[in-house]
Automatic annotation (TrEMBL):
InterPro entries hit by this protein: WH-like_DNA-bd_sf, WH_DNA-bd_sf
A Pfam family matched in the record: HTH_24
UniProt source species: Candidatus Zymogenus saltonus
SUPFAM superfamilies in alphabetical order: Winged helix' DNA-binding domain
Protein's name according to its UniProt entry: Winged helix-turn-helix transcriptional regulator
Superkingdom field: Bacteria
Higher taxonomy: Bacteria, Deltaproteobacteria, Candidatus Zymogenia, Candidatus Zymogeniales, Candidatus Zymogenaceae
Amino acid sequence: MDREEIRTLRIMEEIERDNTISQRTLSQKIDISVGLVNRFIKRLVEKGYFKATTIPSHRVKYMLTPKGIAEKTRLTYEYLRYSLRFYRELKDSLQEVLSEIRVDGIDNILLYGTGEIAELAVLFSRVNEIEIVGIVDDRAGGLCLEMKISPLSEIRDFSFDAILILHTEEVKERISSLSELGVEKSKIYTLKRKR
């Protein structure tokens, strides 16, 4: 499943939830430009997935067609398959890298990343007898399994043998950021995903 199909599914879900949603609100919810939302909607209407009618106050009302319902069902199914495959690969990669960390004689690590993958890392680290000393991320704040998520800039406040980057995108840039903060490259581990 590609990014365009995921965006299409998100737009269809949002419009189904609120059939008078504005393109500006859609762009904010999906985190894409208003122009891109406009192109997606035009394409969905052209394909017959939605009918668009103008209502007072310069608003548009969208109605999902039977053809649109079938496409949304197909995309939902594909998204679930994609998500399960992605989760399995991520889980396998996480278990593999934590085993490697343990074999390298490392007892404690700092996690760089949040979300479900961080929760899995905390749980799998217990199986591998690796202590998680903290979690840092570009988007700090909040908790992950009762552990505070600190800003990356506070990395020097932690004592760790290695750091595990949990992000799967912009990995090289994140390694560079860590190097700039004084982390030796030999202490940096990343997830190895099969592509």
